[in-house]
Amino acid sequence: xxxxxxxxxxxxxxxxxxxxxxxxxxxxxxxxxxxxxxxxxxxxxxxxxxxxxxxxxxxxxxxxxxxxxxxxxxxxxxxxxxxxxxxxxxxxxxxxxxxxxxxxxxxxxx
Length: 110
What we know:
Layout: H1 3-31, H2 44-47, H3 66-78, H4 84-90, H5 95-107
Helix pairs in contact: 3-4, 3-5
């Protein structure tokens, strides 16, 4: 075996070991459901803590794309998207609170 092959082989082995270690680090976090932020109490009566609203008027939020959730919340807050109940819930939310909701609901498993 040439020195180059040994070096290349050790790089490949290191890459495989690193990928395996990374998978071990990510698995426990992915297996645990995210902890709901306090602000989720505003959404829970209709959409549920787990984001499983259940009907057309109360859609599921769990696993929705984060960009979609954020854009919809911003549209409700500004009044661009019309829905009286949603407008009253989100009109006083700041950007940080909206981000907390987006991160929480988008990371839930549907």
